[in-house]
Amino acid sequence: MSESRTPQVLPTRKSTSLLEKFSEADVPTGRGVLRTVVFREKRNGREHVALVVGEVQGLEGVPVRVHSECLTSEVFGSLKCDCREQLDRALDFVTQNGCGVVLYLRQEGRGIGLGNKIKAYALQAEGLDTYEANRQLGFPDDLRSYDVAAEMLRLLGVRSVDLITNNPLKIAGLVEEGIPVRRRIPSRTEHNPHNVGYLRTKRERTGHLIELFAEDDDDTEAKVG
Ligand SMILES: Nc1nc2c(ncn2[C@@H]2O[C@H](COP(=O)(O)OP(=O)(O)OP(=O)(O)O)[C@@H](O)[C@H]2O)c(=O)[nH]1
């Protein structure tokens, strides 16, 4: 008796559709026009933004920043982290380069949300570091996933990226979701007395490639900032 085999079709992340492209328009800014594309998550209605400069469809090695929302720093000017500066510098980079994408993901507080991030700040004021505070609240160090970012890039037609980041987990996360990362572009920001502990902890605990001092310099050619 001949054996009939059903071809095994493995589900791939690429075939899952998490998002719909909801709207887009050109928005004039101090840096120039940003093509602003809003994607909506089908499962929860959450909106994420792609800020696109130039023509990226079908391109390899597109400079991309995958940036997580940080209301406290980006809107209120908090000095406890370097998020606003990283966003500003990434936008400078892609606009000066004439091509690139900044994905602005609604993953406040590394995915735990604004209210919980402020709870974590209260614990940090009592001496816990950023990861200890997360754990005390019952969360892992980082709740983010990169499936949404990967699908946004695919829907924009980006074939591979030069990722603006210091976070090795972001690179791994995107690769895992099927987006080739050609190289890393370091994101360099200034430290201050309020965020130096946060930056050091990220470097020590999650391997962030942060150059806090001149002696940390590496010889990668392109840098943001
Ligand atoms: N839970 C928690 N989140 C924080 C804290 N400080 C900043 N964040 C959040 O951390 C996120 C920072 O995200 P990103 O700017 O993408 O930075 P990153 O993962 O450090 O990696 P790169 O900037 O790409 O190197 C934002 O969502 C901030 O709101 C904190 O003390 N606790």
TrEMBL record:
Known EC number: 3.5.4.25
Source taxon at top rank: Bacteria
Pathway the protein takes part in: Cofactor biosynthesis; riboflavin biosynthesis; 5-amino-6-(D-ribitylamino)uracil from GTP: step 1/4
InterPro entries in the record: GTP_cyclohydro_II, RibA, RibA-like_sf
Catalyzed reactions: GTP + 4 H2O = 2,5-diamino-6-hydroxy-4-(5-phosphoribosylamino)-pyrimidine + formate + 2 phosphate + 3 H(+)
Record: residues binding Zn(2+): 70, 81, 83
BP terms from Gene Ontology: riboflavin biosynthetic process
Essential cofactor(s): Zn(2+)
Annotated binding of GTP, by residue: 65-69, 86, 108-110, 130, 165, 170
Domain GTP cyclohydrolase II residue range list: 23-186
Free-text remark on how the cofactor is bound: Binds 1 zinc ion per subunit.
Sample GO molecular function, one term: GTP cyclohydrolase II activity
One cellular component (GO) term of this entry: cytosol
Active site location: 142, 144
Pfam family, one: GTP_cyclohydro2
Stretches of the chain forming a coiled coil according to its record: none
Keyword tags: GTP-binding, Hydrolase, Metal-binding, Nucleotide-binding, Riboflavin biosynthesis, Zinc
Purpose: Catalyzes the conversion of GTP to 2,5-diamino-6-ribosylamino-4(3H)-pyrimidinone 5'-phosphate (DARP), formate and pyrophosphate.
PANTHER family: 3,4-DIHYDROXY-2-BUTANONE 4-PHOSPHATE SYNTHASE (PTHR21327:SF18), GTP CYCLOHYDROLASE II-RELATED (PTHR21327)
NCBIfam families (UniProt xref): PRK00393.1 (NF001591), ribA (TIGR00505)
Protein family per UniProt: Belongs to the GTP cyclohydrolase II family. In the N-terminal section; belongs to the DHBP synthase family.
Protein name: GTP cyclohydrolase-2
Organism: Archangium gephyra
Gene name for this UniProt entry: ribA
